[in-house]
Amino acid sequence: MKAAPMILGGRVATVLFAITICCQQSLAYTPILTIHDNLVRWDLEERTRDQPNIIEGSVEFFINRAGTHDVEDDGDGTGGEFDILRHGFRAWEKLASSNIDFNDLKLTDQTLAIDADETNVILFDDNNYSGIFPVGTGVIAVTLLTFEEEEYSGVLDGNITDADLVFNDRDFDFGSNIEGKFIKKPGTDQSKGLGFQIPIDLLSVATHEIGHICGLDHSFQQNVVEEPISIRYPTLFPYLYSGDTQARSLEQDDIAGVTELYPHDEFNDKYNGSISGRVTMPNPDPDEAPIPLFGVDIIAYQNGAPVVSTITRTNGVYRMYGVPAGEYILRAQVISPANTGLIQEVALNFQSEYYPAAGLTSDASAITVIAGRRRSNLNFETASDVAPDFFEPNDNAGAATDLAVDGPRMIHQFYREGDEDWVRFEAQAGHAYRLTTDNLSVFADPLMDLFGADGETLIASDDDIDANFGNLAPRIEFTADTTGPHFVRLADVDDFFGFGTSFEFYIQDLGQTDMFDANLDGSIDAMDLLEYAANWGGPTKEDRSPRVQVNSKFLLEMIRN
Predict the structure, then answer these.
(1) Residue pair 311/478 in contact by the 8 Å Cβ criterion
(2) Which end of the chain is more exposed for a tag (fewer CB within 10 A), N or C?
(3) How far is residue 292's CA from residue 283's CA, in Å, rounded to a whole number?
């Protein structure tokens, strides 16, 4: 979680960012902005004034020489946690599209994070002397970022003056090495305050927090990866799962964010373009100008996967930098203000959609990005969420929306308590199908039910692919027994967060299946035997089909042959 920003005096603001341990789901790059909508970033060229923590264009950091007892080091500021942190900085500074740079870590005896001393310090807090980590907080680490705020948006507005990083060494065990295996110092306790059995990957946490140090807020993308089934999210995703190492490496969304802050013009002119536009809602007074929407999540997709995203500013304008040349579909959706450090309230009362004003990807306009060029005026004129989404009314099987198999993706958005979205599709007997929800907005947690031709006979249900690792996207794979219509009901698991949450839904035909391919992987092997052993109960009086009469002896013979 993240604390709300505080304005300290008239010229300086300090914002606290945190990464939180999470066993539930909560993947837009989001630059930190001042109250005047200026970017928060380091003045690497020291154009406005000299800064003691910027040395010849590089940001300087110190680390308390005690480090952490969790990871074995060489005792002289090298090895162990010290080298892990160096790799975290290197992940951000080695990018060809960005000019951000950091000096090598230096040792210090300083034990306090002081937000106004212009000395950037990294600390491991093992007894909460910082006062940042209340008991049971679940916060792994925090970054305290201090930047200038000038009245009337002066030249200093947004300049970072101080950044301190504090790790919660009281409640969490840290372990990591550069090659990707977890290591712990021999004899150290592996059950601190919160008692997680798997150490927290220090490199993942460090890389995440250094993104905040660069001037980036949290990112809320998430994408279901088909093979193997998993979820992808950027380094700046606000939650980390115990044992997860994904945040070590940057996604394109992270890269685009730091590219906006510290662009390498020559590289971007050759390989990247940019996208910009504005999001508005009709004014209730037709004589007045449209209402600009702040904090709208704008995402650029390629082949169904999010590539780059950002949020709109107070005037409704959005800009995406560092967008690789290619063709994209744009989507506008609601995010949650609870997960950003933004000072202003974000818009929550609008209809999520593809550009321009589409609920299906087949109705959306593809956007071509050319290297060195900006695509501008890609404006969304969205409707209020008091109006149903593009497919309402579709609250029962009789009003279900038809969706083509192997066709477009569709956006669903829950807009009221108890809202259900029904979809109808045609299936062929003997064919396997995959029904997938994907690209869930933050806090979206849909539930999927599959029904037969009557819209009442339940065939299958699914809630989460893997809730333990934050994948709340339901997915169903099944083989159709009959040819004809089938129905899908999409409902919200928890109405507490459901209002305004959105997600995509699509259907794939996996082809005709062999009757003995129990796990639908395209081959008959020992895994099918295990599947049948777990689920086979013998034929019933009502159903004497060959499928249910298969036994383990028969399958073993097929596998041997």
Answers:
(1) no
(2) C
(3) 9
Contact 329, 366 (CB under 8 A): yes
pLDDT digits over 285-342, tens only?
999 999 999 888 899 999 988 888 888 988 999 999 889 999 999 999 887 544 545 4
Classified by CATH at the fold level, domain 264-381 comes out as: Immunoglobulin-like (2.60.40)
**CA-based end-to-end distance of the chain:** 56
Q: Which CATH class is domain 397-512?
A: mainly beta
For residue 78, what are the CA distances in angstroms to 65, 82, 83, 213? 10, 5, 6, 22
The residue type of 260 is: E
Q: Is 135 helix (H, G, I), strand (E, B) or coil?
A: coil
| Predicted structure pTM score | 0.74
Distance CA 277, CA 40 (A): 21
CB count within 10 Å of CB 552 equals 12
76 SS3 class:
coil
CA 182 to chain centre: 24
Q: How far apart are CA 89 and CA 73, in angstroms?
A: 18
Q: Is the peptide bond before 356 cis (omega within 30 degrees of 0)?
A: yes
Per-domain residue ranges for the chain? 6-255, 264-381, 397-512, 526-560
| pLDDT of residue 496 exceeding 80 | no
CB-based contact 464:222 (threshold 8 Å): no
